[in-house]
Design brief:
Number of strands: 3
Helix content: 10-25%
Strand content: 25-35%
Order of helices and strands: EHEE
Structural class: alpha+beta
Largest sheet: 3 strands, antiparallel
Strand order of the largest sheet: 1-3-2
Shape: elongated
Length: 65
Amino acid sequence: MPPTANEIPDDGSCDPRFEAVRRAFRSNFDDLDERGGAVCVHVDGRVVVDVWGGFADEALSRPWA
């Protein structure tokens, strides 16, 4: 049985000033039924958001890396 949105794993790092980006990313799983993805944001040459989660295959068996 496929995982529910609450069971979709996510990981990464996020500068506290950009927590809204992490929440928006997470909402893709919770609200839009997405199953895998990543986002990386650079500001002035510095990584401020680097998050990923979900699965990389339709069977939902290979975690996104």
